[in-house]
Each structure stands twice: as structure tokens, then as C-alpha cells.
Design goal:
Layout (H helix, E strand, L loop, with lengths): L7 E2 L9 E5 L12 H15 L3 E6 L19 H12 L3 E5 L10 H6 L2 E3 L3 E5 L2 E6 L9 H11 L1 H8 L3 H17 L14 H12 L5 E4 L5 E5 L5 E5 L6
Parallel strand pairs: 1-6, 2-3, 3-4, 4-5, 7-8, 8-10
Antiparallel strand pairs: 6-7, 9-10
Bound molecules: manganese (II) ion.
């Protein structure tokens, strides 16, 4: 976990690897995909295509549509993708995985098996000399009481322990259905609402009033593509979902 006040200086060893990539919201394993394996293959093909010049890969959340790991059991699937992350880190490419609202229940499996560094909170990072505020971006700018309680509930070790006692067949089926249901009902992501209504934009503007302005804010979660200059120095990017955008 990284303190927001002190930017992390990412250290990059290989000089031939220059580019830093940010992707988010792949929602791997979502029941809405007609051909989930083909979709996973496309993600992996993309990762293959960037491998030769990739210095660091930042996954900004909702990488997997639903994940809950048990002490000795993890959800089925994702073998190509997780294997590819392992290949990246084995070759010295940094992989950072910021948890989103769909993949909050990553505990230590992803770090241990793939070598990716898991970040459970957004924060300030220094990447190639630029200060970047990175987060999945859910809850930013609209941390209502209900949201705070829900976050506390989802992150509570006691609740997680209790959930883990439900048989995985039942728990996983329920969670996937819930995810599909919320996609079907409230899940259509609205287009850009305007600077004065987008929570992440409002968060960034408020943040800049209270802290030194970073060079970039980079978020996922909204499933829209946005590239907005907040000042002459500061640029806000919302990644859009992968692979549609
Ligand atoms: Mn999200």
C-alpha cells in the first residue's frame, strides 16, 4: 500500500524497454461474453504485441469480472492471461494491478503466482519522471455514506471470512449472476456527463486544490474514453474499457 503523499519512484532496469501501458476494465470471465476464451486470447495477443517494448504494465482494475480466492482454491479460468502476466514479470517487466470494484477480493494469489504488484488503493506514482495519480476510480468524488459502508463491508476481513464459508459453487454462481444482473439493469455506462458532473473529474479538481497538481490522473471504471486537460500541466485520462474502446 502506498502513501498518497509520497510518490513511488518506479525503478526500471532494462533500458530497451521504454513504453508504459495502462489498460483497464477487461472484465475477463464476464458471463456476457459469447466466446470468453477468444476474448482472453485477444487480451493475451495484445500483451504479446507490447512485450518487446513494455517497461511497465498498469492494470487499472476490473481486470477480472469476478474473483474470490479461497485458502486452497481459486476461480477457474484466466490461465492464458495469468500465465502471460507471469511471463512479463519473469522477464523483468513490472506489472501493477490496481483492484477495481469487480476484483476487490484478490488476496495473495495474484502476487505470488504472477509476480504482479497488487494495489488496493489509488495513489500517486512517479513514472518516467511524471507524477501520476492512478486508481480504478470507483467511489472517487462521490464517497457517500452508503458507498463508504459498502466499501467497509466488502473489505472487512470478517465478512470475507464468512463469505468464504459458502460453498464456492454457490458463492461464485451467485456473484456472476449478480454481476450480469447489474450489467443488464444499471450497467449501461452513460456517455461523458460533462466536467461538472463526472465524479472522477470533480475528484481530480478537488485534489488539485489540496495537493500539488500531478502531471496525470489516470482512471478506469467509467467505460468511456476521456482525455482532458485540467490545467496547462495536468491531464486527466479515463481509459475506456478494453477491448471495445
Ligand atoms: Mn469498475
Amino acid at each position: 500500500m502506498n502513501e498518497v503523499s509520497s510518490p513511488i519512484e518506479a525503478t526500471h532496469s532494462s533500458s530497451s524497454h521504454k513504453a508504459v501501458y495502462f489498460i483497464s476494465d477487461m472484465h475477463l470471465g464476464a458471463t456476457s461474453f459469447d466466446h470468453p476464451l477468444d476474448y482472453e486470447r485477444r487480451v493475451v495477443r495484445f500483451l504479446d504485441s507490447i512485450k518487446s517494448d513494455c517497461q511497465a504494465l498498469y492494470l487499472l482494475g476490473d481486470v477480472i469480472d469476478y474473483w474470490f480466492e479461497y485458502k486452497y482454491v481459486v476461480p477457474r479460468g484466466f490461465t492464458r492471461f495469468l500465465g502471460k502476466l507471469g511471463e512479463f514479470t519473469d522477464q523483468g517487466i513490472e506489472v501493477h494491478w490496481f483492484t477495481g470494484n469487480h476484483d476487490i477480493w484478490i488476496f495473495d494469489y495474484i502476487e505470488k503466482e504472477t509476480g504482479a504488484q497488487v494495489h488496493r488503493q489509488g495513489g500517486l506514482y512517479t513514472i518516467q519522471g511524471k507524477t501520476c495519480y492512478l486508481a480504478h476510480g470507483h467511489g472517487l468524488g462521490h464517497d457517500t455514506v452508503a458507498f463508504k459502508w459498502m466499501t467497509r463491508f466488502f473489505n472487512s476481513p470478517v465478512c470475507q471470512r464468512m463469505f468464504s464459508w459458502i460453498h464456492p459453487n454457490l458463492a461464485t454462481a451467485f456473484a456472476l449472476r449478480w454481476s450480469a444482473h447489474s450489467r443488464a439493469t444499471g450497467g449501461k455506462y452513460p456517455n461523458f456527463l460533462g466536467e461538472d458532473k463526472e465524479h472522477q473529474v470533480l475528484f481530480a479538481k478537488q485534489y488539485m486544490k489540496e495537493h500539488p497538481a500531478p502531471d496525470f490522473f489516470i482512471f478506469g471504471h467509467r467505460h468511456i474514453m476521456l482525455d482532458l486537460m485540467l490545467s496547462r500541466q495536468t491531464r486527466l485520462v479515463i481509459l475506456g474499457d478494453w477491448i471495445q474502446q
